[in-house]
Amino acid sequence: MDVERDEEEYRALTLTLLGFYNFHQWEYEQLIKPRVIKYQSLTQAEKDLLPWYSKFTEDLKLCININMQFTQNLAMTICRDWGVSPNPKEWYPATSNEYEKVRGTLMQLSREWSSDGEHERLISYGRIVRELTEFFPEELARQNVKVLVPGCGLGRLVVELVRKGFWCQGNEFSYHMLLTSNYILNHSPYAHMYSIMPYLHKSSHLTKRSNQTHPVTVPDSNPTDINELFEKNPHIPYHDLMSMAAGSFVDLYGAKKSAPDSVKDNAAEEFRSTNASYYDVVATTFFLDTASNIIEYIKTVHNCLKEGGIWINFGPLLWHFEDDYNVKMVQKEDKQVPLIMKGLELSRDDLIELIEKMGFKFEKRESNIESTYSNDIRALGAFVYQCEFWICRKVTVKDD
Fold this sequence. Notes:
By secondary structure, this protein is an alpha/beta fold. The chain has 14 helices and eleven strands. It has helices spanning 3-21, 23-41, 44-49, 53-81, 96-113, 118-123, 125-135, 156-163, 175-186, 226-232, 249-253, 266-274, 294-304, 348-357, and strands spanning 146-150, 167-172, 194-196, 216-218, 242-246, 279-285, 305-315, 327-332, 335-340, 360-371, 385-394. The strands form three sheets. A seven-stranded mixed beta sheet has the order 5-2-1-6-7-11-10, sandwiched between helices. Strands 3-4 form a two-stranded antiparallel ribbon. Strands 8-9 form a two-stranded antiparallel sheet. β6 (279-285), α13 (294-304) and β7 (305-315) form a beta-alpha-beta unit. α1 packs antiparallel against α4 (53-81), α2 (23-41) runs antiparallel to α4 and α4 (53-81) packs across α9 (175-186). The protein is globular, with a radius of gyration of 23 Å. Mean pLDDT is 93; it is low at 258-263.
Protein backbone atom coordinates (compact mmCIF):
# COMPACT_ATOMS: atom_id res chain seq x y z
CA MET A 1 0.00 0.00 0.00
CA ASP A 2 1.27 3.47 -0.90
CA VAL A 3 0.96 5.31 2.42
CA GLU A 4 1.98 8.65 0.93
CA ARG A 5 -0.68 8.42 -1.79
CA ASP A 6 -3.34 7.33 0.71
CA GLU A 7 -2.49 10.30 2.92
CA GLU A 8 -2.68 12.67 -0.06
CA GLU A 9 -6.08 11.27 -1.05
CA TYR A 10 -7.29 11.58 2.55
CA ARG A 11 -6.11 15.18 2.61
CA ALA A 12 -7.90 16.03 -0.65
CA LEU A 13 -11.08 14.32 0.50
CA THR A 14 -11.26 15.85 3.96
CA LEU A 15 -10.36 19.40 3.01
CA THR A 16 -13.17 19.18 0.45
CA LEU A 17 -15.53 17.90 3.14
CA LEU A 18 -14.51 20.74 5.45
CA GLY A 19 -15.09 23.18 2.61
CA PHE A 20 -18.71 22.04 2.56
CA TYR A 21 -19.02 21.85 6.34
CA ASN A 22 -17.71 25.36 7.05
CA PHE A 23 -19.08 26.97 3.90
CA HIS A 24 -21.53 29.07 5.91
CA GLN A 25 -18.64 30.78 7.72
CA TRP A 26 -17.06 31.75 4.41
CA GLU A 27 -20.39 32.97 3.06
CA TYR A 28 -20.83 35.16 6.14
CA GLU A 29 -17.39 36.70 5.57
CA GLN A 30 -18.13 37.27 1.88
CA LEU A 31 -21.72 38.51 2.11
CA ILE A 32 -22.56 39.87 5.53
CA LYS A 33 -19.41 41.55 6.83
CA PRO A 34 -18.91 43.83 3.78
CA ARG A 35 -22.55 44.93 3.91
CA VAL A 36 -22.38 45.71 7.61
CA ILE A 37 -19.21 47.75 7.11
CA LYS A 38 -20.67 49.57 4.12
CA TYR A 39 -23.95 50.34 5.90
CA GLN A 40 -22.14 51.66 8.96
CA SER A 41 -20.12 54.00 6.74
CA LEU A 42 -23.26 55.72 5.45
CA THR A 43 -24.62 58.90 6.93
CA GLN A 44 -27.97 58.72 8.63
CA ALA A 45 -29.54 60.57 5.72
CA GLU A 46 -28.16 57.95 3.33
CA LYS A 47 -29.41 55.13 5.57
CA ASP A 48 -32.87 56.69 5.53
CA LEU A 49 -32.89 56.39 1.73
CA LEU A 50 -32.42 52.61 2.02
CA PRO A 51 -34.86 51.56 4.78
CA TRP A 52 -34.88 47.97 3.52
CA TYR A 53 -31.09 47.42 3.65
CA SER A 54 -30.79 46.04 7.19
CA LYS A 55 -33.73 43.69 6.68
CA PHE A 56 -32.19 42.41 3.45
CA THR A 57 -28.90 41.70 5.24
CA GLU A 58 -30.86 39.66 7.79
CA ASP A 59 -32.54 37.79 4.93
CA LEU A 60 -29.11 36.94 3.55
CA LYS A 61 -28.18 35.45 6.91
CA LEU A 62 -31.26 33.21 6.78
CA CYS A 63 -30.30 32.10 3.28
CA ILE A 64 -26.77 31.30 4.43
CA ASN A 65 -28.28 29.09 7.12
CA ILE A 66 -30.36 27.27 4.50
CA ASN A 67 -27.21 26.58 2.48
CA MET A 68 -25.51 25.45 5.69
CA GLN A 69 -28.19 22.83 6.30
CA PHE A 70 -27.54 21.40 2.85
CA THR A 71 -23.74 21.57 2.81
CA GLN A 72 -23.25 20.26 6.35
CA ASN A 73 -25.68 17.41 5.83
CA LEU A 74 -23.84 16.56 2.62
CA ALA A 75 -20.46 16.57 4.39
CA MET A 76 -21.61 14.39 7.29
CA THR A 77 -23.46 11.93 5.02
CA ILE A 78 -20.55 11.54 2.63
CA CYS A 79 -17.97 11.14 5.40
CA ARG A 80 -19.98 8.13 6.61
CA ASP A 81 -20.28 6.75 3.08
CA TRP A 82 -16.54 7.06 2.51
CA GLY A 83 -15.47 5.78 5.93
CA VAL A 84 -14.03 9.09 7.16
CA SER A 85 -14.07 10.29 10.77
CA PRO A 86 -17.29 12.25 11.44
CA ASN A 87 -15.32 14.76 13.51
CA PRO A 88 -14.57 17.83 11.32
CA LYS A 89 -11.76 18.77 13.70
CA GLU A 90 -9.84 15.77 12.36
CA TRP A 91 -10.17 16.90 8.73
CA TYR A 92 -7.59 18.90 6.84
CA PRO A 93 -8.22 22.68 6.85
CA ALA A 94 -10.02 24.08 3.83
CA THR A 95 -8.69 27.07 1.90
CA SER A 96 -10.55 29.85 0.12
CA ASN A 97 -10.15 27.81 -3.05
CA GLU A 98 -12.29 25.02 -1.57
CA TYR A 99 -15.00 27.47 -0.56
CA GLU A 100 -15.03 29.00 -4.05
CA LYS A 101 -15.47 25.51 -5.45
CA VAL A 102 -18.38 24.83 -3.10
CA ARG A 103 -20.00 28.04 -4.32
CA GLY A 104 -19.51 26.86 -7.90
CA THR A 105 -20.90 23.45 -7.01
CA LEU A 106 -24.15 25.02 -5.80
CA MET A 107 -24.40 26.79 -9.14
CA GLN A 108 -23.70 23.48 -10.90
CA LEU A 109 -26.51 21.90 -8.88
CA SER A 110 -28.84 24.56 -10.22
CA ARG A 111 -27.67 23.81 -13.77
CA GLU A 112 -27.85 20.01 -13.62
CA TRP A 113 -30.49 19.20 -11.03
CA SER A 114 -33.01 22.07 -10.86
CA SER A 115 -35.75 23.39 -13.09
CA ASP A 116 -33.68 26.59 -13.50
CA GLY A 117 -31.17 24.64 -15.60
CA GLU A 118 -33.74 22.93 -17.81
CA HIS A 119 -33.13 25.17 -20.84
CA GLU A 120 -29.33 24.83 -20.65
CA ARG A 121 -29.65 21.05 -20.34
CA LEU A 122 -31.97 20.91 -23.33
CA ILE A 123 -29.41 22.69 -25.52
CA SER A 124 -26.47 20.49 -24.51
CA TYR A 125 -27.54 17.22 -22.87
CA GLY A 126 -30.77 17.11 -24.83
CA ARG A 127 -28.94 17.36 -28.15
CA ILE A 128 -26.55 14.55 -27.19
CA VAL A 129 -29.31 12.24 -25.92
CA ARG A 130 -31.42 12.89 -29.03
CA GLU A 131 -28.57 12.11 -31.41
CA LEU A 132 -27.60 8.91 -29.60
CA THR A 133 -31.16 7.59 -29.45
CA GLU A 134 -31.38 8.17 -33.20
CA PHE A 135 -28.05 6.38 -33.75
CA PHE A 136 -29.27 3.46 -31.64
CA PRO A 137 -33.05 3.33 -32.12
CA GLU A 138 -33.57 -0.17 -30.70
CA GLU A 139 -34.11 0.42 -26.98
CA LEU A 140 -33.46 -3.16 -25.87
CA ALA A 141 -30.12 -3.16 -27.71
CA ARG A 142 -28.84 0.02 -26.02
CA GLN A 143 -27.76 -1.87 -22.89
CA ASN A 144 -24.95 -3.28 -25.05
CA VAL A 145 -23.83 0.20 -26.17
CA LYS A 146 -21.00 1.37 -23.92
CA VAL A 147 -20.99 5.17 -23.39
CA LEU A 148 -18.30 7.14 -21.54
CA VAL A 149 -18.96 10.68 -20.26
CA PRO A 150 -15.68 12.37 -19.23
CA GLY A 151 -16.00 15.39 -16.95
CA CYS A 152 -19.52 14.28 -16.04
CA GLY A 153 -19.90 16.86 -13.25
CA LEU A 154 -22.89 15.98 -11.08
CA GLY A 155 -23.95 13.06 -13.25
CA ARG A 156 -27.13 14.35 -14.89
CA LEU A 157 -26.16 13.40 -18.46
CA VAL A 158 -25.12 9.94 -17.24
CA VAL A 159 -28.51 9.48 -15.58
CA GLU A 160 -30.39 10.67 -18.68
CA LEU A 161 -28.50 8.20 -20.90
CA VAL A 162 -29.16 5.34 -18.48
CA ARG A 163 -32.85 6.27 -18.48
CA LYS A 164 -32.75 5.74 -22.25
CA GLY A 165 -31.29 2.27 -21.70
CA PHE A 166 -27.59 2.92 -22.46
CA TRP A 167 -24.74 1.41 -20.44
CA CYS A 168 -22.97 4.57 -19.25
CA GLN A 169 -19.91 5.37 -17.17
CA GLY A 170 -19.24 8.85 -15.86
CA ASN A 171 -15.72 10.04 -15.18
CA GLU A 172 -14.95 12.99 -12.92
CA PHE A 173 -11.78 14.42 -11.41
CA SER A 174 -13.19 17.00 -8.97
CA TYR A 175 -13.87 15.83 -5.42
CA HIS A 176 -16.50 18.57 -5.10
CA MET A 177 -18.41 17.12 -8.03
CA LEU A 178 -17.87 13.50 -6.99
CA LEU A 179 -19.08 14.02 -3.43
CA THR A 180 -22.08 16.09 -4.46
CA SER A 181 -23.15 13.69 -7.22
CA ASN A 182 -22.83 10.84 -4.71
CA TYR A 183 -25.10 12.73 -2.35
CA ILE A 184 -27.73 13.57 -4.98
CA LEU A 185 -27.75 10.16 -6.66
CA ASN A 186 -27.72 8.04 -3.51
CA HIS A 187 -29.48 10.17 -0.90
CA SER A 188 -32.41 11.72 -2.75
CA PRO A 189 -35.37 9.35 -2.43
CA TYR A 190 -37.73 11.91 -3.93
CA ALA A 191 -37.65 14.99 -6.16
CA HIS A 192 -37.27 18.54 -4.76
CA MET A 193 -35.92 17.13 -1.50
CA TYR A 194 -33.37 19.88 -0.79
CA SER A 195 -33.46 23.67 -0.92
CA ILE A 196 -30.34 25.67 -1.76
CA MET A 197 -29.59 29.33 -2.41
CA PRO A 198 -27.13 29.29 -5.33
CA TYR A 199 -27.44 32.96 -6.34
CA LEU A 200 -26.47 34.68 -3.08
CA HIS A 201 -23.11 35.80 -4.46
CA LYS A 202 -24.60 37.34 -7.62
CA SER A 203 -25.32 40.99 -6.83
CA SER A 204 -25.19 42.33 -10.38
CA HIS A 205 -27.81 42.24 -13.14
CA LEU A 206 -30.71 41.89 -10.67
CA THR A 207 -34.22 43.06 -11.52
CA LYS A 208 -35.17 42.91 -7.84
CA ARG A 209 -33.25 41.99 -4.72
CA SER A 210 -35.45 38.95 -4.03
CA ASN A 211 -33.85 37.28 -7.07
CA GLN A 212 -30.61 37.06 -5.11
CA THR A 213 -32.37 35.10 -2.36
CA HIS A 214 -34.40 32.93 -4.72
CA PRO A 215 -34.41 29.31 -3.52
CA VAL A 216 -33.81 26.38 -5.85
CA THR A 217 -34.96 22.86 -5.06
CA VAL A 218 -32.91 19.83 -6.06
CA PRO A 219 -33.09 17.34 -7.56
CA ASP A 220 -35.89 18.38 -9.92
CA SER A 221 -36.12 14.77 -11.10
CA ASN A 222 -35.86 11.74 -8.84
CA PRO A 223 -32.59 9.92 -9.68
CA THR A 224 -33.97 6.70 -8.19
CA ASP A 225 -36.86 6.48 -10.67
CA ILE A 226 -34.85 3.73 -12.34
CA ASN A 227 -36.92 1.39 -10.17
CA GLU A 228 -40.06 2.55 -11.97
CA LEU A 229 -38.37 2.21 -15.36
CA PHE A 230 -37.40 -1.37 -14.54
CA GLU A 231 -41.01 -2.21 -13.68
CA LYS A 232 -42.09 -0.93 -17.11
CA ASN A 233 -39.16 -2.51 -18.99
CA PRO A 234 -38.00 -5.57 -17.01
CA HIS A 235 -35.80 -6.70 -19.90
CA ILE A 236 -33.49 -3.69 -19.45
CA PRO A 237 -31.19 -4.03 -16.38
CA TYR A 238 -31.19 -0.31 -15.49
CA HIS A 239 -29.52 -0.91 -12.11
CA ASP A 240 -26.46 -2.37 -13.85
CA LEU A 241 -26.10 0.32 -16.50
CA MET A 242 -24.56 3.19 -14.51
CA SER A 243 -21.10 3.54 -12.98
CA MET A 244 -18.73 6.33 -11.95
CA ALA A 245 -14.93 6.45 -12.13
CA ALA A 246 -12.98 9.00 -10.10
CA GLY A 247 -9.75 10.37 -11.50
CA SER A 248 -8.03 12.01 -14.44
CA PHE A 249 -9.54 11.23 -17.84
CA VAL A 250 -6.09 10.90 -19.42
CA ASP A 251 -4.71 8.73 -16.62
CA LEU A 252 -7.67 6.35 -16.49
CA TYR A 253 -8.57 6.03 -20.17
CA GLY A 254 -5.35 6.94 -22.02
CA ALA A 255 -2.98 4.52 -23.69
CA LYS A 256 -0.34 4.76 -21.01
CA LYS A 257 0.75 6.81 -18.03
CA SER A 258 4.06 8.63 -18.20
CA ALA A 259 5.21 7.87 -14.67
CA PRO A 260 8.14 5.97 -13.15
CA ASP A 261 7.38 2.49 -11.80
CA SER A 262 7.85 3.72 -8.23
CA VAL A 263 4.71 5.88 -8.38
CA LYS A 264 2.49 3.71 -10.58
CA ASP A 265 -0.87 2.66 -9.20
CA ASN A 266 -1.40 -0.99 -10.14
CA ALA A 267 -5.19 -0.76 -9.82
CA ALA A 268 -5.25 2.29 -12.09
CA GLU A 269 -2.94 0.53 -14.57
CA GLU A 270 -5.28 -2.45 -14.70
CA PHE A 271 -8.33 -0.24 -15.08
CA ARG A 272 -6.65 1.73 -17.86
CA SER A 273 -5.70 -1.42 -19.76
CA THR A 274 -9.30 -2.65 -19.79
CA ASN A 275 -10.50 0.64 -21.29
CA ALA A 276 -8.53 0.41 -24.54
CA SER A 277 -10.92 0.17 -27.51
CA TYR A 278 -13.76 -0.54 -25.08
CA TYR A 279 -16.38 2.17 -25.64
CA ASP A 280 -18.86 2.58 -28.47
CA VAL A 281 -19.43 6.25 -27.65
CA VAL A 282 -17.54 9.04 -25.88
CA ALA A 283 -19.80 11.99 -25.07
CA THR A 284 -18.12 15.26 -24.04
CA THR A 285 -19.94 18.43 -23.07
CA PHE A 286 -18.27 21.63 -21.83
CA PHE A 287 -15.18 19.47 -21.35
CA LEU A 288 -12.58 19.83 -24.13
CA ASP A 289 -11.51 23.33 -23.11
CA THR A 290 -10.50 22.05 -19.66
CA ALA A 291 -7.42 20.54 -21.34
CA SER A 292 -3.96 21.92 -20.76
CA ASN A 293 -2.76 19.64 -23.56
CA ILE A 294 -5.63 19.06 -26.00
CA ILE A 295 -3.55 16.48 -27.87
CA GLU A 296 -3.63 14.23 -24.80
CA TYR A 297 -7.43 14.54 -24.60
CA ILE A 298 -7.88 13.60 -28.26
CA LYS A 299 -5.43 10.69 -27.93
CA THR A 300 -7.38 9.44 -24.94
CA VAL A 301 -10.74 9.64 -26.73
CA HIS A 302 -9.18 7.73 -29.63
CA ASN A 303 -7.64 5.12 -27.33
CA CYS A 304 -10.79 4.20 -25.43
CA LEU A 305 -13.14 4.14 -28.46
CA LYS A 306 -13.70 0.98 -30.45
CA GLU A 307 -12.79 1.10 -34.13
CA GLY A 308 -15.72 2.89 -35.76
CA GLY A 309 -16.83 4.28 -32.40
CA ILE A 310 -18.56 7.66 -32.10
CA TRP A 311 -17.29 10.81 -30.42
CA ILE A 312 -20.09 13.30 -29.79
CA ASN A 313 -19.17 16.72 -28.43
CA PHE A 314 -20.88 19.94 -27.36
CA GLY A 315 -19.24 23.02 -25.88
CA PRO A 316 -17.24 26.23 -26.32
CA LEU A 317 -13.52 26.87 -26.58
CA LEU A 318 -12.98 28.79 -23.36
CA TRP A 319 -9.54 27.39 -22.64
CA HIS A 320 -9.35 27.08 -18.85
CA PHE A 321 -5.57 27.36 -18.56
CA GLU A 322 -5.14 30.33 -20.88
CA ASP A 323 -3.89 32.53 -18.03
CA ASP A 324 -2.07 29.87 -15.99
CA TYR A 325 1.66 30.57 -16.04
CA ASN A 326 2.58 28.00 -13.37
CA VAL A 327 5.48 25.75 -14.32
CA LYS A 328 6.16 22.31 -12.87
CA MET A 329 8.51 19.44 -13.67
CA VAL A 330 6.98 16.31 -15.21
CA GLN A 331 8.23 13.00 -16.55
CA LYS A 332 8.28 12.88 -20.35
CA GLU A 333 10.01 10.11 -22.32
CA ASP A 334 12.30 9.05 -19.45
CA LYS A 335 13.36 12.55 -18.46
CA GLN A 336 12.16 15.46 -16.36
CA VAL A 337 11.02 18.45 -18.40
CA PRO A 338 9.39 21.76 -17.42
CA LEU A 339 5.67 22.00 -18.14
CA ILE A 340 3.53 25.12 -18.26
CA MET A 341 -0.25 24.79 -18.17
CA LYS A 342 -1.00 27.41 -20.85
CA GLY A 343 0.23 27.35 -24.43
CA LEU A 344 -1.99 25.00 -26.48
CA GLU A 345 -5.08 27.17 -26.89
CA LEU A 346 -6.15 26.25 -30.42
CA SER A 347 -8.57 28.05 -32.68
CA ARG A 348 -11.65 26.16 -33.85
CA ASP A 349 -10.19 25.57 -37.31
CA ASP A 350 -6.90 24.33 -35.85
CA LEU A 351 -8.76 22.01 -33.49
CA ILE A 352 -10.87 20.47 -36.25
CA GLU A 353 -7.78 19.92 -38.39
CA LEU A 354 -5.98 18.29 -35.46
CA ILE A 355 -8.88 15.93 -34.71
CA GLU A 356 -8.92 14.76 -38.33
CA LYS A 357 -5.15 14.21 -38.28
CA MET A 358 -5.51 12.03 -35.18
CA GLY A 359 -7.83 9.47 -36.70
CA PHE A 360 -11.38 10.85 -36.73
CA LYS A 361 -13.81 11.55 -39.54
CA PHE A 362 -16.49 14.20 -38.97
CA GLU A 363 -20.01 13.09 -39.81
CA LYS A 364 -21.89 16.09 -38.48
CA ARG A 365 -20.92 19.59 -37.37
CA GLU A 366 -22.80 22.63 -36.12
CA SER A 367 -21.21 25.88 -35.01
CA ASN A 368 -22.21 29.01 -33.10
CA ILE A 369 -24.92 27.35 -31.01
CA GLU A 370 -25.73 29.83 -28.26
CA SER A 371 -25.73 28.59 -24.68
CA THR A 372 -25.22 29.97 -21.20
CA TYR A 373 -23.65 28.02 -18.34
CA SER A 374 -25.07 27.94 -14.79
CA ASN A 375 -26.97 31.09 -15.59
CA ASP A 376 -29.49 32.76 -13.30
CA ILE A 377 -32.51 32.76 -15.60
CA ARG A 378 -33.93 35.84 -13.81
CA ALA A 379 -30.81 37.97 -14.32
CA LEU A 380 -30.63 41.01 -16.60
CA GLY A 381 -27.44 39.79 -18.22
CA ALA A 382 -25.55 36.58 -19.00
CA PHE A 383 -22.35 35.40 -20.66
CA VAL A 384 -23.39 33.58 -23.83
CA TYR A 385 -21.09 30.97 -25.41
CA GLN A 386 -20.95 30.20 -29.10
CA CYS A 387 -20.70 26.43 -28.85
CA GLU A 388 -19.50 23.72 -31.20
CA PHE A 389 -21.36 20.47 -31.77
CA TRP A 390 -20.03 17.53 -33.70
CA ILE A 391 -20.25 13.82 -34.25
CA CYS A 392 -17.14 12.14 -35.52
CA ARG A 393 -16.08 8.54 -35.92
CA LYS A 394 -12.83 6.77 -35.13
CA VAL A 395 -11.56 5.58 -38.48
CA THR A 396 -7.91 4.61 -37.94
CA VAL A 397 -5.67 3.29 -35.22
CA LYS A 398 -2.85 5.72 -34.39
CA ASP A 399 0.40 4.85 -32.68
CA ASP A 400 1.36 6.94 -29.64
